[in-house]
Design a protein that fits this description.
The protein is mainly α. Helices cover 70% and strands 3% of the residues. A hairpin with a 2-residue loop joins strand 1 and strand 2.
Length: 203
């Protein structure tokens, strides 16, 4: 889901850079010092998961884990994902430095959406509702990221419309898989370390 160098128009690149800078600012502002190791851990998990690319036509698919990042980090998902993408661009030439802002926003902003969505689900007394929220956090984070990638390509040029559509369709299996991964990990944390899910501290 990385967008490479030389693809996007200048307005899209600038918009992505400005929006990501704002997201990183809020993420750092809301980050408590004791949660920095968790941010580093999630950033490392994101870095490793995103390295395994499966080519599919003109695009490629990979795990993202941005839904899990959103649940555990809230706004701090922005700096965590930025660091992961920066290291991937420098070390493995995935994405690029000029597209770093757009790629960060495309993957981190959905984390914020599912962060607030999950806060609603987690307060339910119905265990099934909570688990549905956990699954949707993983599923929808990838869905929204794919939509944002498609929008980035479309606003660069309508000739990218087919590629944008393929990007969304290609990530449907990833959406399903990430939904289950997020559900399993969050349920595990709920049993062994529930304090990691106390997101109210991040408001």
């Amino acid at each position: 889901m990385h967008i490479s160098e030389g693809v996007l128009s200048a307005p899209v690149l600038i918009s992505g850079g400005v929006l990501s800078a704002a997201g990183v600012y809020f993420g750092l502002k809301k980050l408590d010092n004791e949660r920095i190791p968790l941010v580093a851990l999630i950033s490392a998990a994101f870095f490793v998961a995103s390295l395994i690319h499966v080519p599919l036509g003109p695009t490629s698919v990979h795990l993202i884990l941005n839904g899990l990042a959103g649940i555990l980090l809230g706004w701090a998902a922005f700096p965590a994902i930025l660091i992961g993408l920066f290291l991937q661009a420098i070390l493995f030439q995935f994405g690029g430095l000029t597209t770093l802002g757009v790629n960060t926003f495309n993957m981190a902003f959905p984390s914020i959406i599912v962060y607030y969505m999950f806060m609603f689900f987690k307060n339910s007394n119905n265990k099934t509702v909570v688990m549905i929220g956990e699954y949707l956090a993983g599923f929808l984070s990838v869905f929204f990221s794919a939509i944002l990638v498609g929008a980035s390509l479309y606003f660069t040029g309508q000739s990218f419309l087919k590629v944008a559509e393929l990007t969304v369709m290609a990530h449907i299996p990833v959406m399903i898989i990430e939904g289950f991964i997020t559900l399993i990990v969050v349920e595990f944390l709920r049993k062994v370390k529930p304090e990691m899910l106390e997101m109210e501290k991040l408001k």
